[in-house]
């Protein structure tokens, strides 16, 4: 079994009491994707009846600091439904992330850090609104997004190109965002060159891993399905194993970000998990 150990993973496992007041996690509805055919996800259409993928954005508050994780569908889709973005692929987006933040009294400039699981258009759609935030991104993803976007057809530089001017930390692996083990970016490449997931320790809710696009469907995880459009299938499988090991070591729960069944069960902002 492929297992990677790191100083940060050890820190993650041991740091549950290292902070006196843990972070808060807010969940936002940043759209919906409907697929007529799911075979591109490495599944047969008979494997599952699910065709809708929830598109989330998350805000993590840690003391006086804030991290935005994933930026939803492009803001140009707000107020529209069933827009066909590819053959048999439709998107809907009711209320923009920016309006949802505004309802909480927050503006983009109130967000200290932004980190995206990866730079596909449905995860970084509000990216250009956060040019004044500090970008946390794997070096390999930065190169793919800003130097070789044309080689990555699900990337849309028009929604994130201004982030090239943002204060940026290029990562080469795991990263402890606030320095206490409660919010840790975990490198999990394969879906894209610098795909990453987010580990959280919440005082009351417990330990959570936000999956990015490690998996798209619950059935994807059950079957170990690798989408056709992933950058590297072998890296993807290694990331499956790495995150499984993290879940086993910490007892964390994996939140498959695109799972609509999960999303329907969650309280949305301004409610929060702590």
Structural commentary:
With 274 residues, the chain is of the alpha/beta class. The chain has one domain (7-265): 4-Layer Sandwich (Metallo-beta-lactamase, Chain A), CATH 3.60.15. The protein has helices spanning 7-14, 97-102, 139-146, 218-223, 233-250, 260-265, and strands at 24-35, 52-62, 65-71, 80-86, 89-93, 113-115, 134-138, 168-171, 175-176, 183-187, 196-202, 206-210, 253-255. The protein is globular, with a radius of gyration of 17 Å. It starts with 6 loop residues before the first helix and ends in a 9-residue tail after the last helix.
Number of DSSP-assigned strands: 13
What order do the strands of the largest sheet run in, or round the barrel if closed?
A: 4-5-1-2-3-6-7-8
Total DSSP helices: 6
From the N-terminal CA to the C-terminal CA, the straight-line distance is 33 Å
Count of folded domains: 1
Low-confidence stretches are 1-20
CATH class: Alpha Beta
CATH topology: Metallo-beta-lactamase, Chain A
Shape: globular
Summarize the biggest pleated sheet: 8 strands, mixed
CA-atom Rg in angstroms: 17 Å
Mean pLDDT: 93
Strand content: 25-35%
Residues in helix, %: 10-25%
Q: For this structure, what is the CATH homologous superfamily?
A: Ribonuclease Z/Hydroxyacylglutathione hydrolase-like
């Amino acid at each position: 079994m492929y297992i990677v150990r790191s100083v940060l993973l050890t820190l993650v496992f041991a740091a549950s009491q290292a902070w006196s007041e843990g972070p808060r996690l807010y969940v936002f509805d940043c759209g919906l994707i409907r697929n007529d055919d799911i075979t591109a996800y490495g599944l047969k259409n008979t494997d599952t009846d699910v065709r809708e993928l929830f598109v989330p954005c998350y805000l993590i508050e840690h003391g006086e600091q804030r991290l935005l994780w994933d930026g939803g569908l492009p803001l140009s889709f707000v107020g529209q439904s069933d827009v066909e973005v590819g053959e048999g692929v439709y998107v809907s987006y009711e209320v923009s992330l920016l309006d949802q933040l505004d309802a909480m009294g927050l503006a983009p400039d109130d967000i200290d850090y932004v980190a995206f699981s990866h730079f596909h258009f449905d995860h970084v759609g509000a990216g250009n609104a956060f040019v004044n935030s500090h970008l946390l991104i794997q070096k390999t993803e930065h190169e793919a997004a800003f130097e070789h976007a044309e080689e990555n057809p699900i990337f849309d530089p028009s929604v994130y190109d201004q982030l090239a001017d943002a204060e940026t930390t290029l990562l080469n692996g795991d990263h402890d965002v606030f320095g206490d083990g409660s919010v840790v970016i975990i490198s999990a490449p394969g879906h894209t060159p610098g795909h990453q997931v987010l580990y959280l320790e919440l005082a009351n809710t417990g330990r959570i891993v936000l999956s990015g696009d490690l998996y798209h469907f619950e059935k994807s995880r059950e079957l170990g399905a690798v989408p056709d459009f992933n950058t590297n299938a072998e890296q993807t499988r290694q990331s499956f194993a790495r995150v499984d090991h993290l879940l086993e070591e910490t007892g964390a729960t994996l939140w498959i970000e695109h799972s609509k069944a999960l999303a329907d069960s969650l309280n949305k902002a301004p409610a929060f998990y702590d």
